[in-house]
Specification:
14 strands; 13 helices; binds guanosine-5'-diphosphate; alpha/beta
């Protein structure tokens, strides 16, 4: 299929979902101040059933006429090519002569944030044709460092004899060994920074995948997070103990220190609405009643208790120890690292994710799930942000239709072709952003835009 065909197909899928957000949201508002409650509930239920069927039909269409096979071959081949490239870059035969980048794992934040820091170092070394050296001494989670859980990211080039240079001015382009700062300290960000993907893979990736950067990020994590033998054994044991099985929906509920600072509270019921929707559609697709399994990860133990008590129709796979060691007072310990690595792993082994993309744990699971499907860009529901990368250069979208703002709704004008800096999706039919032509900020219907893909 052409890229045009695939983009159109994905756009229709998104638009159907968007219609459902819009109508459900409007009906909910009506429901609050109306004496037609029964009628509205009837419409909601019927509408949802029809939307579910449409979504399943579209999913079937996406796999029909050998399209599914084509996408699978295409993504598997590209994944192999890229993993080989990473391997070669990281295992030079002439380490001493190689230009290098040194990256400190121990950024003063959580594991997801630290891994995204390493990912940006890795992206930099990839595009600058350097070898990445990971410094995981004094890691706040585990004094034994990264290799307590993962295979070394290089076998042949693990240290650097030369003195390292800081990233200042243009020195990063020429110095033999650069020590990476945190991404926010860089003012002259090169064009290969997120959300760019390698230009040479743009054609292939943008055809088979709905969000190429996320797939690319998944490939990097896949390379970085290869479990060592001991940890792989543990993962297999936990898998058996949990009786981990497909189908499964991964739910991540981030609470405690994140609330009020970087994210808002969301009740478990909000997450479960989307889990139900996934299984209603899955039952329709498979024509059987499936066991409704949920892998639940959270940093708040109460959420696990609530899940068990209030949702008897669901089977919850969860480990209370992980929730306990996730709390701030136990967080920076080997037990906590083990917990979060396991949680991210099992979330990413599910068929679908429901979480808040404001959390780096959720973002990592979303990146990793991409390595298990040719295109898992739609296998998630975020209760807050759209996908982003901390410190990203930009996330622009293009208007595909004109928009005349409805007065009083905080909307902005769009002209077909306008570039808009995307701020977020309100998941009610509207997105928010800044029109780069008029510099106006505000809301516009989500179906009137399409994504752009940066490449380098
Ligand atoms: P963010 O703060 O949610 O964006 O994600 P970070 O990964 O940067 O920091 C949060 C840290 O809290 C994680 O790395 C974990 O140490 C801990 N944490 C948060 N949620 C969970 C969870 O669901 N399970 C476990 N085991 N740990 C969690």
């Amino acid at each position: 299929p052409s890229e045009e065909f695939e983009s159109l197909r994905r756009k229709i899928f998104n638009d159907v979902q968007d219609v459902s957000y819009f109508v459900n949201n409007q009906l909910q508002k009506l429901n609050r101040n109306s004496n037609l409650n029964d009628k509205i509930k009837f419409i909601q239920k019927n509408f949802q059933e029809r939307i579910n069927l449409l979504s399943v039909e579209l999913e079937n269409l996406s796999e029909s006429d050998t399209l599914g096979d084509w996408r699978k071959v295409e993504s598997e081949n590209l994944a192999i090519k890229i993993q080989n490239e990473f391997h070669d870059l990281q295992n030079p035969s002439d380490c001493e002569k190689r230009k290098k980048i040194i990256c400190d794992l121990n950024k003063s934040c959580g594991f997801g944030c630290q891994m995204h820091h390493v990912m940006y170092c890795f992206i930099t070394s990839y595009f600058m044709n350097r070898t990445l050296i990971l410094d995981s001494n004094d890691w706040r989670y585990n004094s034994h460092g990264y290799e307590a859980y993962f295979k070394p990211i290089s076998k042949t080039c693990k240290t650097s004899k030369e003195k390292s240079t800081d990233w200042t001015g243009n020195q990063y382009e020429t110095a033999d060994v650069i020590r990476m700062p945190v991404i926010d300290e860089i003012t002259n960000k090169p064009e290969f920074f997120p959300l760019a993907i390698p230009k040479k893979y743009l054609n292939s990736l943008s055809r088979f995948h709905g969000d190429p950067f996320v797939w690319w990020a998944g490939q990097i994590l896949n390379y970085l997070m290869r479990f060592n033998t001991k940890f792989e054994e543990l993962v297999q044991n936990v898998k058996k103990k949990l009786n981990f099985q497909a189908p499964c929906v991964g739910v991540h509920v981030r609470r405690t220190d994140k609330l009020g600072t970087e994210a808002s509270f969301h009740a478990l019921s909000e997450y479960m609405t989307h889990v139900k929707e996934f299984y209603d559609r899955y039952d329709l697709k498979t024509s059987i009643k499936n066991t409704r399994t949920v892998y639940l990860a959270t940093d708040e133990l109460e959420v696990m208790k609530e899940a068990k008590q209030n949702y008897p129709d669901y089977v919850f796979l969860m480990d209370e120890t992980n929730a306990k060691t996730a709390s701030l007072n136990q967080r920076y310990s080997p037990e906590s690292a083990q917990g979060v690595i396991l949680d991210i792993h099992f979330l990413s082994q599910c068929d679908f994710l429901v979480c808040t993309l404001s959390s780096q744990v959720c973002r990592m699971a979303y990146e990793l799930i991409q390595t298990r499907y040719p295109d898992a860009s739609l296998r998630f529901k975020s209760l807050d942000d759209v996908y982003y990368y901390g410190g990203q250069l930009r996330h622009n979208v293009i208007a595909v239709l004109d928009h005349e703002p409805n007065p009083g709704y905080g909307e902005i004008e769009l002209k077909k072709g306008d570039l808009i800096g995307l701020a977020g999706n309100h998941w009610d039919g509207y997105s928010k952003g800044k029109n780069l032509r008029t510099l106006q900020e505000g809301l516009f219907p989500s179906y009137k835009i399409r994504n752009t893909i940066d490449s380098y």
